[in-house]
């Protein structure tokens, strides 16, 4: 067999290189068409609406095509003619091999993306969502006025607990100690809590029911703290009364909460308000402290029971609107004003308490952002601006991180920020074409995946769906 000359070998290698460049060109043209005509909003790619990563195929496709054409002209000018069969086989192998680094380059340019992996069909008829519980497993329990429905880690519907007839569900306890949640029912918002039911979140059984006039309820360790006319401590599993703390006739309980062995309740007595901490097992008072208010309360919400953190809003225009921070003895040790030089605190999405920090969405002029405040003294630990992107959701994700969902005009992103410094741990992940309502909750699932729960009344949206990393195009 005649051995090819060096010039012929160079020609064969050049022919293989042309095949590799042509394969990458074809790949990038196909990806570019998909990005522009499929992924882009309105199926057209504008100046500010092109999907992330569009620039890579748009730039490299013509460069690879030009390089292939110039190399082919170079070979023809040197008299390289028809390629023999071995050179063609080599060219096909090089073309196939070139697709892999070409794909890796595109995948790195477009960054991480998450897409639907499973969802529940919309529930009809539509009913007003109330909230959601997340159990220790992958199960979420979605509450609507007409009852509770559990969904497992793959989005399949599990147990269901309908609301009593003509008594819609209206509120949920913030915590679910020992896997037991407290659901409050009432015929109208003014009578919410006329019935309190303890629910075993493992199977949806109603463990006990308590009728009341207008009750607030919270779980604290082994105790259900229920406040109607007085504050009661009930066994969380059986509902048997363990202790009772009388409330003065001129006072009304405005909020209850608890964590571990400590239960908290806030009373309003005329224009004065106070917070009391009791032992969750015995009802013994640990401390009582007056809140620095001067008028009646418009709203009080417990953000954290340990350490105590309250969002307090007075009715008077000049009254307090701030997050109050207390120590273990009930002394006010700091506050975060709802409006100040650091920006305005937003009520929605709900703030996250984690790692000794209150992480909350804020608005600074026209720009949005996320700020973290110390639960010890109220100082701002860090701020992360989001520019024109709207803060849509906050949730603890991995250990030492908080997940932030933001949206701009065209796209929705999920960022992971470190609790210590607020810095992004990775490039923001694009959430692709998700059926996401205005109000929702989300939780981390298996590594890299998340569970979203829609809380909009719109019955056209799936109540829950799962998203996983995109592995294809």
Structural notes for this entry:
By secondary structure, the chain is of the alpha+beta class. Helices cover 18% and strands 43% of the residues. The chain is built from three helices and 34 strands. The chain has an eight-stranded mixed β-sheet with strand order 28-29-30-31-1-34-33-32, with no helix packed on it. Strands 22, 23, 24, 25, 26 and 27 form a six-stranded antiparallel β-sheet that branches. A four-stranded antiparallel β-sheet has the order 2-3-4-5, with no helix packed on it. A hairpin with a 4-residue loop joins β28 (390-396) and β29 (401-407). α1 (6-39) packs antiparallel against α2 and α1 (6-39) packs parallel to α3 (85-110). The radius of gyration is 30 Å and the shape is elongated.
């Amino acid at each position: 067999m005649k051995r090819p000359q060096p010039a012929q070998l160079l020609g064969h290698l050049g022919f293989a290189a042309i095949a590799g460049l042509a394969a990458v060109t074809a790949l990038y043209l196909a990806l570019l068409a998909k990005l522009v005509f499929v992924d882009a909003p309105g199926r057209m790619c504008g100046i500010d609406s092109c999907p992330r990563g569009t620039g890579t195929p748009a730039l490299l496709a013509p460069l690879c095509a030009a390089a292939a054409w110039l190399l082919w002209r170079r070979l023809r000018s040197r008299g390289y003619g028809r390629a023999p069969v071995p050179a063609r086989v080599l060219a096909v192998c090089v073309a196939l091999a070139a697709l892999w680094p070409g794909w890796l380059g595109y995948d790195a340019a477009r960054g991480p993306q998450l897409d639907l992996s499973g969802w529940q069909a919309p529930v009809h008829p539509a009913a007003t969502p109330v909230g959601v519980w997340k159990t220790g497993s992958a199960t979420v329990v979605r509450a609507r006025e007409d009852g509770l429905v559990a969904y497992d880690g793959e989005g399949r519907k599990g147990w269901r607990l309908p609301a009593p007839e003509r008594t819609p569900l209206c509120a949920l306890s913030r915590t679910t100690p020992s896997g037991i949640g407290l659901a409050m029912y009432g015929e109208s918002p003014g009578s919410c809590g006329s019935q309190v039911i303890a629910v075993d979140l493992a199977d949806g059984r109603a463990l006990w029911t308590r009728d009341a006039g207008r009750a607030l309820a919270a779980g604290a360790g082994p105790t259900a703290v229920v406040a109607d006319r007085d504050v009661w401590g009930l066994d969380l599993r059986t509902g048997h009364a363990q202790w009772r703390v009388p409330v003065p006739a001129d006072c009304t309980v405005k909020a209850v909460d608890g964590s571990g062995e400590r239960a908290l309740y806030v009373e309003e007595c005329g224009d004065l308000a106070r917070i009391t901490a009791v032992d969750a097992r015995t009802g013994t008072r640990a401390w009582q402290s007056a809140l620095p208010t001067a008028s009646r309360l418009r709203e009080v919400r417990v953000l954290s029971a340990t350490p105590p953190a309250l969002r307090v809003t007075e009715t008077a225009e000049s009254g307090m609107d701030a997050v109050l921070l207390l120590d273990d003895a009930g002394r006010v040790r700091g506050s975060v004003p709802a409006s100040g030089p650091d920006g305005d605190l937003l009520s929605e999405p709900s703030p996250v308490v984690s790692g000794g920090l209150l992480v909350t969405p804020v608005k600074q002029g026209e720009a949005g952002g996320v700020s973290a405040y110390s639960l010890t003294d109220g100082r701002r630990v860090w701020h992360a601006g989001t520019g024109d992107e709207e803060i849509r959701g906050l949730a603890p994700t991995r250990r030492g991180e908080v997940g932030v969902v933001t949206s701009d005009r065209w796209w929705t992103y999920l960022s992971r920020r470190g609790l210590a410094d607020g810095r992004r741990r990775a490039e923001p992940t694009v959430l692709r074409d998700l059926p996401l309502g205005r109000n929702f909750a989300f939780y981390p699932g298996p590594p890299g995946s998340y569970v979203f729960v829609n809380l909009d009344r719109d019955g056209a949206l799936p109540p829950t769906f799962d998203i996983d990393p995109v592995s294809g195009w």
